[in-house]
Amino acid sequence: MRQLLLLFIALFSLVGCLKDDDYTVSVNDRLAFSKDTIKFDTIISGIPTKTYSMAVYNPANKAIRISQIALQKGASSPFKVQADGAALENGIATDFEIARKDSMIVYFMVNVPNTDSDAPVDYTDKLVFTTEAGVNQEVVLKAVGQDVIDLKAQRISHDLTLDAKRPYHVYDSLVVEKGATLTLAAGTQFFFHSKTSLIVYGTLKIEGTLESPVVLRGDRLDDMFKNQPYDRTPGLWGGVVLKKGSFGNEIRYADIHSGSFGVQIDSTDVTQRALTMENSLITTTTNHAISVRQANVFIGNSQITNAGGDCLHVRGGDVTLVHCTLGRFFVFTGGYGHALDFANYDNDVRLPLKKLQMYNCIVTGYQEDELMGSNNTDFEEDAFNYNFANSLINTPKPKDDDAHFVNCLWDVKDKSNNALPVEEQILRDKNFTPEFNTDHLLFSFELSEKSQAIGKADATITQQYYPNDRLGRNRGNAPDMGCYQHQTKKEEKQI
After folding, report:
1. Are strands 155-156 and 168-171 parallel, antiparallel or unpaired?
2. I need a labelling partner for 224 at 20 to 30 A (CA). Which of 300, 305, 360, 454 fits?
């Protein structure tokens, strides 16, 4: 028995010696990192981010011992790190090992403090890896913190103007009560928490400018995955609701995106203007981008795109659109709508359509037919009036219906004409440039050089309403349909 014990001790000692010999102490054997910089985009102060990760590789033929992993700023750093399952307490942790040709995972998050600063604040630190050989290697950590004004269960009961000094972070919905007017100054930004909305019983005035639009978006500022921000996905918040009895609302130079819906309008009184919206962008919604129910609405020079429901959903009322682009190229599953859907009823409710008119517009999308109109045949005396003029429409050309469609173009494939090869046929998404980047959810609705919408708008209407396009560019004597004037040499901006 004693001999066996001595043999076991000898073998154990031998294994230990061999293990020690398997670790490198050469300064030439260095770690490799999947990222040399960990960068967090703008972060709301006081709210921890989600966790990001990085791999640390050992390319050597022997194991590497890491004697220490430490944040350069120690316990004062806003960055929090966990390496190989061990948290860095007070910004430091010791004794790590990575086998040859192996790796370990390091996790990062950040929680920046409130600084009472209107401007964004930059934060930097370094994560230092010290090997047993005495080699120091660094990974740079960067973040931008933004102090915000929290609005929790806020009800606006008197006239109020919100400025653009800091973004507003909205919880529990922001409500404008009857008799009150909420004005949003140029450059104002709103971050809405999940399922919250801007609900208006009174009046909303959005006074953005070309240089300083008003932005309404969700509060997910991080990335869903590499090069894919959550901000490009729908359903991050609710939307804007203009309640029954809310009149005189004005939205100018607004960017409303990534909600469950965009703007909902319900008035019942079509003799009063419920909403005037100009030079604005509504995009990337789970449901309808704009829905109108028995309301008087004017929309001009605006982009309304990529809705899971309808880009524009009209049920009765008095609705006019001039120089607008409606494009439904929704790439998420579950989409059910069209670029434009209008009717004079909703289920069993009669909603006379006093007027729907579109001038110099584009109505298009991926589907064979993006224009849906429905008349209540049970009550044929109910108004169902619509008119399209000088517009590009993705729908089969109507037969014997010239009274409703004047100087319109039909954005559909002519299957009977095979004169042009498919690659030269400019149809639907090919009307726009640059090409849609569906991998990164980037879409441009500026016209391509071969789009049939170029130069086909009614110049008289253009001069009367919008001689300049949504980006402030003069349309000249040959205006294009839609909200963007084609530029021969232009900056390719994707939205």
Report:
1. unpaired
2. 305
Best CA proximity match to 305, nearest among 290, 327, 286, 333: 327
Q: Which structure tokens are listed for 109?
A: 């998050």
d(CA 169, CA 396): 45
Please identify which residue in the block is written with the tokens 């959903």. Answer: 313
The reported pTM is 0.87
The one-letter amino acid code at 270 reads V
- State the residue for tokens 């090869």: 421
CA distances from 295 to 169, 264, 265, 313, 316 (A): 30, 10, 7, 12, 7
Q: How many residues does the chain have?
A: 495
Q: Are 240 and 175 spatial neighbours (Cβ–Cβ below 8 Å)?
A: no
Instruction: Name the nearest CA neighbour of 483 among 395, 362, 369, 372.
Output: 362
Convert the pLDDT of each residue in 379-415 to its tens digit. Answer: 989 999 999 999 999 998 888 767 899 999 988 665 5
Q: Is the dihedral of CA 424, 416, 364, 273 positive or negative?
A: positive
DSSP-derived pairing of the beta strands 136-146 and 160-162: unpaired
CA–CA separation, 318 vs 353, rounded Å? 7
